[in-house]
Write a sequence for this structure.
């Protein structure tokens, strides 16, 4: 007997809130999980899986609705459309839920929301899909490959077209497929407090499966985790949740060597620092050999950085609210290293934030390219002659990455800084040139991420 009626109702609330307020599902889900933190572990897991799964497969689910319903998904009331998506997801992707239970609970939800007159419609559509779920007429790849990839990987058609034009069809499909693969949970060991071996032992004792990182010794990969913040070592600051892709910024910076060559502390400026992954990595590795200036645009963001600094027990970071677009003369040619990890379309992290693909638009991408260029123009002023500018994004869009790097080099007194000797051997094949690296999800064992390293001409 299925006894998760209330959990399904919570899932419906979260999904409706994200649609109504156009917010990211993780924000709405985390708010609900926090409010219901005493739910049994299994119910929390069911809620997360259902909400994230419906979001992840939304385009495919709507295609199935359209194939079996006279009323198309777009024309349905939000409650009905969402309940149908939830029911279909459970029938297709949740083996532990019998089709009958998924259907019956959907009907109950509709009645609870005062839409009893539509309960027969919902029941009929779901039962029809349940009977035919092994024979759903998906698009024919040979007749319309764009439609096929869009439906099968639940990605908007315009993004599919872009990926094929950027990477070719085979590589594009590998990237799309990666979005539907459960992402790894990666943490960065705080070696100012502990080390990988001790932390691995501690986490293993707590029932967590731990593996070494793919590209850096600072990383550990965890599985079997329900709630990261309750893991031993988290509250004590022994680790930070961070993907290996962004840990590579420190790797390619060569900051430790730069410290050794200086008689005074290294100056590092992080312009868009929240929540603090990159600046705390530099602070942790360089300790008293560096002064880190971490900035972001609002107190909400800088408070998050401060919270992480306190937890990680770091003392060499100054935090301030600052708009990266507004020049600060006090930092003109102050920094040995400027970190410009800029706002972007996020196409490299769709595997972790599934609804990015629904929020990003062609117009937003154009606006982001201009924003990035404006921030880079300002960032250039803060770098000392001979100093380093690290430009990074978590997207795989050439316009925001390679094209912006080319634009920057053609407008400012910088040149590409050779980082081939610093890049792990496993990633040398994805370097675009000696000074830039384009990581692709599914092809690399990390998020999609771009790094370019520039040196200011003396």
């Amino acid at each position: 007997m299925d006894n998760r009626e209330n959990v399904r109702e919570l899932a419906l609330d979260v999904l409706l809130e994200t649609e109504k307020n156009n917010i990211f599902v993780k924000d709405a889900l985390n708010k609900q999980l926090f409010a219901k933190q005493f739910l049994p572990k299994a119910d929390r897991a069911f809620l997360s899986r259902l909400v994230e799964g419906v979001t992840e497969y939304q385009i495919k689910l709507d295609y199935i609705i359209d194939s079996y319903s006279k009323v198309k998904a777009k024309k349905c009331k939000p409650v009905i459309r969402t309940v149908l998506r939830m029911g279909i997801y459970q029938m297709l992707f949740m083996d532990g839920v019998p089709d009958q239970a998924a259907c019956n609970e959907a009907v109950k939800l509709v009645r609870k929301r005062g839409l009893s007159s539509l309960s027969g419609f919902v029941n009929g559509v779901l039962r029809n899909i349940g009977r035919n779920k092994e024979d759903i007429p998906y698009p024919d790849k040979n007749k319309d490959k764009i439609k096929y990839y869009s439906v099968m990987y639940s990605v908007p058609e315009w993004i599919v077209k872009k990926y094929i034009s950027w990477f070719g069809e085979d590589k594009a499909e590998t990237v799309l497929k990666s979005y539907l693969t459960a992402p790894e949970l990666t943490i960065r060991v705080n070696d100012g407090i502990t080390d990988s071996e001790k932390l691995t032992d501690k986490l293993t004792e707590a029932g967590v499966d731990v593996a070494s990182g793919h590209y850096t010794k600072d990383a550990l990969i965890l599985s079997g985790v329900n709630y990261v913040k309750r893991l031993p070592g988290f509250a004590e600051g022994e680790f930070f949740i961070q993907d290996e892709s962004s840990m590579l910024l420190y790797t390619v910076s060569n900051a430790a060597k730069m410290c050794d060559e200086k008689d005074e502390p290294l100056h590092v400026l992080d312009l868009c620092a929240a929540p603090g992954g990159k600046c705390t990595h530099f602070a942790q590795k360089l300790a008293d050999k560096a002064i880190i200036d971490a900035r972001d645009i609002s107190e909400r963001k800088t408070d998050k950085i401060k919270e992480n600094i306190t937890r990680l027990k770091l003392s060499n970071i100054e935090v301030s609210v600052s708009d990266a677009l507004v020049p600060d003369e006090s930092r003109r040619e102050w920094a040995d290293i400027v970190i410009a990890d800029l706002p972007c379309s996020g196409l490299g992290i769709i595997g972790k934030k599934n609804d990015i693909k629904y929020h990003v638009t062609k117009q937003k991408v154009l606006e982001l390219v201009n924003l990035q260029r404006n921030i880079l123009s300002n960032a250039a002023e803060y770098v000392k002659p001979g100093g380093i500018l690290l430009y990074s994004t978590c997207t795989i869009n050439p316009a925001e990455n390679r094209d912006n790097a080319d634009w920057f080099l053609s407008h400012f007194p910088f040149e590409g800084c050779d980082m081939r000797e610093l890049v792990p051997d496993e990633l040398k094949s994805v370097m675009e040139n000696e000074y830039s690296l384009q990581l692709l999800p599914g092809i690399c064992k990390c998020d999609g991420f771009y790094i370019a390293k520039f040196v200011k001409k003396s």
Notes: The domain at 185-241 is CATH 3.30.70.1170 (Alpha-Beta Plaits). The chain has four domains: 5-132, 145-178, 185-241, 244-456. The first helix runs from residue 5 to 21. The chain has a mean pLDDT of 95.
